[in-house]
Design a protein that fits this description.
The complex is a heterodimer. Chain A has strands spanning about 5, 10-15, 20-25, 30-40, 45-50, 55-60, 60-65, 70-75, 85-90, 100-105, 105-110. Chain A is mainly beta. Chain A is globular and about 40 Å long. Chain B is mainly β. Helices cover about 0% and strands about 55% of the residues of chain B. In chain B, strands 2, 4, 5, 6, 9, 10 and 11 form a seven-stranded mixed beta sheet that branches. In chain B, β9 and β10 (about 100-105) form a beta hairpin. Classes of the chains: A mainly beta, B mainly beta.
């Protein structure tokens, strides 16, 4: 069993829809939870990170962590064609400065105009 | 700032050849790392460094060497290339002052094919 599981998709939704992307994990010691966006043939770009449980909002993006269920989500509101990319979740076991990121495999998202 | 730069962008090697993938950052980040990305596997950590002169192994270190003589540079050496090392390689650098402040940047990647 992988430490971090992510549905690879692909996921296609119409422009303006709310997108929900999810990851589950097995190691309850993970402390930091990250979401990355990766455009085709580019490096990953850190979108958001959260520490422990709760929600964090940044513009149209909301990251949610439920440590009791070992489940994290990224919501995209008012989705745009420019949001079409692969989204990766990642988790850090230790604190920043001694981090070893464990990634999910990524979900390919397409927003249809 | 150039951010994180990687060279070359593309490389084809024959089995048994060696080469060095270059990575540089101009943000004075202490933490740098190398990942490989393969279809269906996500990104996997090869080696990382928490500062000049300090390196450690990640999840998939076999067949790779690293060194960190300066804060800016973190080259990855393939000792004797094998077809299993065909992948896209990403370098990343990051910085954190406390739990509420974190920045991380990935380079554009090097696409390596070993025949």
């Amino acid at each position: 069993q992988k430490e971090v599981e992510q549905d690879p998709g692909p996921l296609s939704v119409p422009e303006g829809a709310i997108v929900s992307l999810n990851c589950t994990y097995s190691n309850s010691a993970f402390q930091y939870f990250m979401w990355y966006r990766q455009y085709s043939r580019k490096g990953p770009e850190l979108l958001m990170y959260t520490y422990s449980s709760g929600n964090k909002e940044d513009g149209r993006f909301t990251a949610q962590v439920d440590k009791s269920s070992k489940y994290i989500s990224l919501f995209i509101r008012d989705s745009q064609p420019s949001d079409s990319a692969t989204y990766l979740c990642a988790m850090i076991l230790f604190g920043f400065g001694n981090e070893k990121l464990t990634f999910g495999t990524g979900t390919r998202l397409t927003i249809i105009p | 700032n150039a951010g994180v730069t990687q060279t070359p962008k593309f490389q084809v090697l024959k089995t048994g050849q060696s080469m060095t993938l270059q990575c540089a950052q101009d943000m004075n980040h202490e933490y740098m790392s190398w990942y490989r990305q393969d279809p269906g596997m996500g990104l996997r950590l090869i080696h990382y460094s928490v500062g000049a002169g300090i390196t450690d192994q990640g999840e998939v270190p076999n067949g790779y060497n690293v060194s960190r003589s300066t804060t800016e540079d973190f080259p990855l050496r393939l000792l004797s290339a094998a077809p299993s090392q065909t992948s896209v390689y990403f370098c990343a650098s990051s910085y954190s002052s406390d739990t509420s402040s974190y920045e991380q940047y990935f380079g554009p990647g090097t696409r390596l094919t070993v025949t």
